[in-house]
Amino acid sequence: DGGITQSPKYLFRKEGQNVTLSCEQNLNHDAMYWYRQDPGQGLRLIYYSQIVNDFQKGDIAEGYSVSREKKESFPLTVTSAQKNPTAFYLCASSIAGVNTEAFFGQGTRLTVV
Amino acid sequence: AQSVTQLDSQVPVFEEAPVELRCNYSSSVSVYLFWYVQYPNQGLQLLLKYLSGSTLVKGINGFEAEFNKSQTSFHLRKPSVHISDTAEYFCAVSGVGGYNKLIFGAGTRLAVHP
């Protein structure tokens, strides 16, 4: 089945450690996105990538980094510089264009203790 | 700046009653509008979208929405809800900054009671 796979579903890390969230898609989509979800705040865009080897900062990129070495993969690293990393992280992908549907993964819940 | 406002954070309703979830947006350019649904601890699923044409858009699970340009609104409606409709609903706009950069509202939690 085609779709987006995020792993792991739950992740626990100690404060000060970097952690990488995986996102893989087999939909052959050009564009991929990372969103952060906090209660009562909706989804906020962290980074997005339109093509391989290119990505742009979203609204809350500080403390995060990404790479796009392959079309199907868009991993997100939450660094120790992120002040409040505990959240639900959603990855999405879409075909090119501004009026196309974004498909979402099941999310990763990160808890930093 | 473009934004999306969902006017109700929570909407309680009894089963088989009608429901309307309100969404307003602000933008100086033409936008595309979307409604997504999120079940607990899951990703988002597209309910419906408005791109152009008829202002009344029908989606999955019996939902529909009406685009009102003069009021900059895109309210979601369902004539008769089921327990299984209990979820969080997000309104979103794109066409902002190009390339499907979706801007989301804060969400409305729909709670359907028996």
State the main characteristics.
heterodimer; A: 113 residues; mainly beta; 7-stranded mixed beta sheet; 4-stranded antiparallel beta sheet; 0% helix; globular; B: 114 residues; 6-stranded mixed beta sheet; 12 strands
Could you describe the 3D structure shown?
The complex is a heterodimer of chains A (113) and B (114). Helices cover 0% and strands 50% of the residues of chain A. By secondary structure, chain A is mostly beta strands. Chain A has strands at 4-7, 10-13, 19-25, 31-37, 43-51, 54-57, 64-66, 76-78, 87-94, 103-104, 108-112. Chain B is mainly beta and 114 residues long. Chain B is built from no helices and twelve strands. In chain B, strands 2, 5, 6, 10, 11 and 12 form a six-stranded mixed sheet that branches. In chain B, a hairpin with an 8-residue loop joins β10 and β11. Chain B starts with a strand and ends with a strand. The interface between A and B is medium-sized, with 30 and 27 residues.
Short description:
With 113 residues, chain A is mainly β.
Largest interface, C-beta within 8 A: A-B, 30 and 27 residues
Oligomerization state: heterodimer
Q: Determine the strand fraction of chain A and express it as a percent band.
A: over 45%
Summed up, the helix count of chain B is 0
Fraction of residues in H or I helices of chain B: under 10%
What structural class results from the helix and strand content of chain B?
A: mainly beta
**Beta-sheet strand percentage of chain B?**
over 45%
Mean of all residue-level pLDDT scores of chain A: 91
Rg of chain B from C-alpha positions?
Answer: 14 Å
Dominant shape of chain A? globular
Structural category of chain A is: mainly beta
Element order, helices and strands of chain B? EEEEEEEEEEEE
Count the helices of chain A. How many?
0
Q: Main beta sheet of chain B: strand number and arrangement?
A: 6 strands, mixed
Return the average pLDDT of chain B rounded to an integer.
90
Which stretches of chain A of 5+ consecutive residues score pLDDT under 50? none
Distance between the termini of chain A: 36 Å
Helix content of chain A: under 10%
Q: Compute the separation of the termini of chain B in Å.
A: 41 Å
